[in-house]
Amino acid sequence: MLKALRAALAQYALGDEGGDGEEEIVAPIEERVKVLLSAIEETEKHLRGLGFEPDRLTGAKGFTRIAAIADGAEAVSSARDEGRRRFEILARQIFIRFKALIMEPAAFAYAMRHDNIEAIYKKLQERRDTADISDLLKELHRIVNEAIRAAEPGEDQMDAKLYDMSTVDLEKLRDEFSKKVKRKASAVEDIRQLVEKKLAQMLARNPQRMDFYKKYSEIIADYNSDKDRVTIEETFTRLVDFMQGLDAEDHRAAEEGLSEDEYAVFCLLQKDNLAKSERERVKQASQGLLDSLRKLIAQRERWTEKEETKAEVEVLIRDTLVTALPTPPFTEEEKELAVSRIYQHAWQQSASGEI
Question: Among residues 278, 304, 276, 289, which one has the least CA distance to residue 338?
Fold first, then answer.
């Protein structure tokens, strides 16, 4: 099989004049093992540079190993985005090279060191699936509580402190984080994952929420620019405050008496200083337009790919808004701008399967 593979590769790469196929294509086992060892040593060196000794994991079992893995993940998280990305790139090189040698006894000598790095990598890759902001805050409280318990191995055998999770005391949460949480960078990284998932969901439904993304980006940029303990604690506080803002925004549609999709259209049509009656008319326009759009798009397969169907959708939006939006306060120019915004929104939502 190897001989046939060599011949096929030689013919593909060089044609019929490519040689007799006797030249070695696959590097000798010894060289590939050396490359694996080099990748492991480079990754371990990077971990030591971040303040974590990977030898702590060698032979460690039970709670000792769990704590060491958590400390390794904390060290990588403390290095911010750049240090984490470098670790993940180095680790993936180890996994690729080890997998290629999985049947070679010579690679077994490095299996433990491979597994140690893989354990830290997997710890960093853990994801939490939370959809509702209130659930997100409860999950955040759980993360902090877990971090407190992890700081004292063996306490899982003791009675845990109980919290009423129907309400979250954010001031108490901040106090717990600053005074009790040992692995602060890991906790902040967990919170980032929660916030980014929720933020992506909210932005996908309503592009007018881009200001939330900008604010979040500023928080993370400040976090990445500094590395001291105070910065981590300040970032935690800012993320908690940011989540409160997301919480309020997440319930805005219900407060307006609209669905999430209707509220997204309403946000695109809104303007400052509308009277109460005018806002109600804009709400009705949002609901009516969305309903009409859904009916039309349902009858037009892949409408975003055809000029004729794209024109139909644009005409529908224009005809609806020209009559539905009150004049004043809306000018003709503002109505045309609204047509453009709604059309782009409908196109993006259709392309992503949301409408």
Answer: 289
- Of 285, 268, 246, the C-alpha closest to 348 is 268
Q: Are 127 and 181 in contact (CB under 8 A)?
A: no
Q: Is the dihedral of CA 285, 286, 290, 291 positive or negative?
A: negative
Q: Which two tokens stand for residue 7?
A: 């011949």
The answer to whether residues 51 and 78 touch, using CB atoms and an 8 Å cutoff, is: yes
- Taking CA 336 as the corner, what is the angle to CA 333 and CA 340, rounded to the nearest 5 degrees? 140
Give dist(CA 144, CA 232) in Å, integer.
14
How would you class 52 by CB atoms within 10 Å of its CB: exposed for 0-12, middle for 13-18, buried for 19 or more?
buried
Report the candidate in 122, 128, 121 with the shortest Cα–Cα distance to residue 197: 128
Q: pTM to 2 decimals?
A: 0.47
Count of H-run helices and E-run strands, the chain: 15, 0
242-281, pLDDT tens digit by residue?
777 777 777 777 777 888 888 888 888 887 777 888 888 8
Q: What is the pLDDT of residues 327-352, one digit of tens each?
A: 888 888 888 888 888 888 888 877 76
